[in-house]
Amino acid sequence: MKTVTSAQMRELDARMIKEFEVPGEVLMERAGAGVADFVQCLSRMSGYVKPCILLLAGRGNNGGDAFVAARCLKEHGMEVEVWLAGVSDEITGDALRHLGKMRSAGIVLNELPTIEDWELAPVACHGVDIIVDGVLGTGISGPARGPAVGAINYINTLSERSVVVSIDVPSGLDADTGRPSGSAVKADITVTMGLPKVGLLEPSAADYVGTLEVIDLGMPDELISPITSDRELINAEDLRKIIKRRSRDAHKGNFGHLLIIGGALGYSGAAALAAEAALRSGAGLVSLLVPESIAPIVAGIVPEAMVHGGSETKEGTLSIGCFSKLKKDLSSFSAVLAGPGMTVHKQTRAVVDRILRKSRCPVVLDADALNVYAKEADIFRSSPCSVIITPHPGEMGRLMDCSADQVQSDRFGAATRAAEKTGSVVILKGAGTIVAANGRPLSVNMTGNPGMASGGMGDVLSGFLAGLVAQGVDPFDAARVAVYLHGRAGDNVALRSSQSGVTAGDVAEELPGVIRELTAR
Question: What is the mean pLDDT of residues 260-267?
Answer without folding.
Answer: 97
